[in-house]
Design a protein that fits this description.
Layout (H helix, E strand, L loop, with lengths): L1 H43 L3 H4 L11 H14 L6 H35 L3 H48 L4 H7 L7 H41 L2 H20 L2 H25 L1 H7 L2 H54 L10 H53 L20 E4 L3 E10 L5 E11 L4 E4 L6 H8 L9 E4 L5 E4 L8 E2 H6 L4 H6 L4 H10 L3 H7 L5 E2 L1 H4 L2 H15 L3 E5 L7 H14 L2 E5 L11 E5 L5 E5 L10
Parallel strand pairs: 1-5, 4-10, 4-11, 6-9, 9-10
Antiparallel strand pairs: 2-3, 2-5, 7-8, 11-12
The structure holds adenosine-5'-triphosphate (ATP).
Family: Belongs to the ABC transporter superfamily. ABCD family. Peroxisomal fatty acyl CoA transporter (TC 3.A.1.203) subfamily.
GO molecular function: ABC-type transporter activity; ATP binding; ATP hydrolysis activity; long-chain fatty acid transmembrane transporter activity
GO biological process, one term: very long-chain fatty acid catabolic process
Length: 651
């Protein structure tokens, strides 16, 4: 029987092992397949944002961080006499008041308990009533503290946002940031969430350090005067050692926080793109493709958040051990020493008095240990703040660079010698003159080595050439969006040059705002534009019916959605009539407008003295121009009068 049984067992074992191996193999293959399919989907989508080489953000609590935070603090707290400094003071006062309340609660709690222990009913009731009367004051102190913190956060955010927006919207910095520079890919995330979190982090850190520091000061003083210096000094020694250790272990937090914000920004950006281009995507039926792009971006974010969570949990365990529980053990140890010592003056006291003192000192020591723990944990906030600080500082650096014309881009090989803003810009009315100006893209690609031509007011010019030959690039240089790499450019100041793109921008606001953009209605009125005049402009571009349909110039709508492509182009023309600049650049801006409307618009421009640069392939437009600038797309160009034999157009 026994050998049979063992045989059976061995057989069973073999079977069990075989099935376990098979199960493992199936599971492994399944995981491999899932992993492979997930990878192949992710490999298919290489969206650009993440592939752009960005500076690797270093975010440690070190000398650089303290320098950066000092600079940012000077912005959010402009002076010691500012309201922000006032709120810092108010928080400090509220914290002092709260600590006094805490101390009072400790000592008064002991008094109530001693009244209970000594069975003194009258004293107990009397003390309880006093305690009850103090409750509203304590509650008020707590909420004044909450209010001061909330208001401080708002004020810090207000100051930082205003400063950043000042720089972001100075000249064309917002354009340059996304078109000329590749250091920051999602300025919106930085300007919104990151700034908010940065300010929140400062306010939190201030409270999380100010209150424990104050508590430590109070309790160290009280314990020192009653138990001697050794007890509080041992606790402070522990604070120092644990603080240094935890700060070192938490070093990756800053970088991980910065990375989290970057990935959140990317994911948000991809979502916003889908909203902007929803119609185009819907016509292409691109749901699945867009979903994959979104999921890939979300997975990246999710993986990072998961890793960050694991790291935080790991650090939480260490934090709890070091800053919370071990601090309590150290607390017990140090408070017990004078009571256990045979030489301390406490030895002479009776049992009841010793119990009372131990109770009071013990509570103080627990509070001291808690305060030390909170201070050590505030280090965690400090490393998070380091992450936000480096992100906000990076945004400020890029803004400052762009405002002085310095930008970082992917230069093509051999173009390192190109220096942006090396050309000369001269402002003069009624003339546009390119003198040996090279046409160079922000990447450093040379489209035309040297471009020279002169246009005076009254000489309409048709610009043509194949796709990618540099027509729009020419206007970007003329509009000062792109830097001048060399030569001399003479032109009227910005306000006297107007640009109308193929897809004109419609602002938020009334129908009147669309015509006067970027002037507000009030500004337009100040400049003498009456409603009658604006309505006349609308009629000139055959949009008079909009006044009736939409309910007059004051009608408010989302004009980007409400108007058709051709209507938007005609609004842009009415806008041109309102501004009546010296020169206007029309970049295929009448492609959706019928020929007769187009003709009357050109006639009107000539009447009021607006000189036009037109990019168009329409033959119907030849008659409205005197010169033609032809870019051949291979680095050559010609500039000559239009006559009956001109053939170049219609590339
Ligand atoms: N922001 C940019 N950064 C780098 N290169 C750019 C940028 N914008 C345009 N380019 C490149 O510059 C070249 C000229 O572009 P541009 O838009 O001036 O052509 P275009 O003549 O207006 O073409 P189209 O007729 O198609 O509108 C193209 O090769 C384009 O890829």
């Amino acid at each position: 029987m026994a050998p049979n049984c063992s045989k059976l067992l061995t057989k069973n074992n073999v079977l069990l092992t075989a099935s376990a191996v098979t199960l493992l193999w199936i599971l492994k293959n399944r995981r491999k397949k899932i992993f492979q399919s997930k990878r192949s989907v992710e490999e298919e989508v290489k969206y650009l944002i993440s592939d752009k080489k960005e500076n690797i953000t270093k975010a440690h609590v070190d000398r650089i961080f303290f320098k950066q935070i000092y600079e940012l603090l000077r912005i959010v707290i402009p002076s010691w006499a500012s309201p922000e400094a006032g709120f810092l003071f108010m928080i400090a006062c509220s914290l002092v008041a709260r600590s006094i309340c805490d101390l009072w609660i400790i000592s008064y709690g002991t008094k109530i308990e001693s009244a209970i222990v000594s069975s003194n009913r009258n004293l107990f009731v009397q003390r309880l009533i006093t305690f009850l009367c103090a409750i509203p004051v304590i509650s008020l102190v707590n909420n004044v503290l909450k209010f001061s913190i909330g208001e401080l956060k708002l004020r810090l955010r207000n100051n930082m946002t205003r400063r950043l927006l000042d720089d972001y919207l100075k000249n064309y910095t917002y354009y340059r940031m996304s078109n000329l520079d590749n250091r920051i890919s999602n300025a919106d995330q930085l300007l919104t969430t990151d700034v908010d979190k940065f300010c929140e982090s400062i306010a939190e850190l201030y409270c999380n350090t100010a209150k424990p520091l104050l508590d430590i000061g109070i309790y160290v003083y009280r314990l020192w005067t009653s138990l001697g210096g050794q007890t509080p000094m041992s606790m402070l020694g522990y604070l120092l050692v644990s603080g240094v250790l935890l700060t070192h272990l938490r070093r990756p937090t800053g970088k991980m926080t910065a990375q989290e914000q970057k990935l959140e920004g990317e994911y948000r950006h991809i979502n916003a793109r889908l909203i902007t281009y929803s119609e185009e995507v819907a016509f292409y039926n691109g749901n699945s493709r867009e979903k994959v792009t979104l999921i890939v971006s979300f997975n990246k974010l999710l993986n990072h958040l998961r890793n960050f969570l694991r790291f935080r949990v790991f650090m939480g365990v260490i934090d709890n051990i070091v800053a919370k529980y071990f601090a309590s053990i150290v607390g017990f140890w140090v408070v017990s020493r004078p009571f256990l010592s045979q030489t301390h003056e406490l030895v002479d006291l009776g049992h009841q008095e010793r119990s009372r003192l131990y109770y009071t000192y013990g509570r103080m020591l627990v509070k001291l240990a808690e305060a030390i723990g909170r201070l050590v944990l505030a280090g965690r906030e400090l490393t998070r703040l380091a992450g936000f600080t480096s992100r906000v500082t990076q945004l400020r650096t890029v803004l400052a660079d762009l405002n002085v014309g310095r930008y970082t881009r992917t230069m093509v090989a051999g173009s390192e010698h190109l220096i942006p803003n090396n050309g000369k810009l001269i402002f003069r009315d009624n003339i546009i003159k390119f003198d040996k100006v090279p046409l160079i893209t922000p990447n450093g690609d040379i489209l035309i080595t040297e471009l020279s031509f002169e246009v005076k007011s009254g000489m309409n010019v048709l610009v043509c050439g194949p796709n990618g030959s540099g027509k729009s690039s020419l206007f970007r240089i003329l509009g000062e969006l792109w830097p001048l790499f060399g030569g001399e450019l003479m032109k009227p100041p910005r306000g006297k040059l107007f640009y109308i793109p193929q897809k004109p921008y419609m602002t938020l606001g009334s129908l009147r705002d669309q015509i006067t953009y970027p002037h507000s209605s009030a500004e337009a009125k100040r400049r003498g534009a009456s409603d009658k005049m604006l309505e006349e402009h609308l009629r000139l571009v055959q949009l008079g019916y909009l006044l009736k349909r939409e309910g007059g110039l004051d009608a408010v709508a989302d004009w980007l959605d409400v108007l058709s492509g051709g209507e938007k182009q005609r609004i842009a023309m009415a806008r041109l009539f309102y501004h009546a600049p010296q020169f206007a650049i029309l970049d295929e801006c009448t492609s959706a407008v019928s020929v007769d409307v187009e003709g009357s618009m050109y006639k009107y421009c000539r009447e009021v003295g607006i000189t036009l640069f037109t990019v168009s392939h329409r033959k119907s437009l030849w008659q409205h121009h005197e010169h033609v600038l032809y870019l051949d797309g291979r680095g050559n160009y010609s500039f000559k009068p239009i006559d009956a034999y001109t053939e170049e157009f219609g590339s």
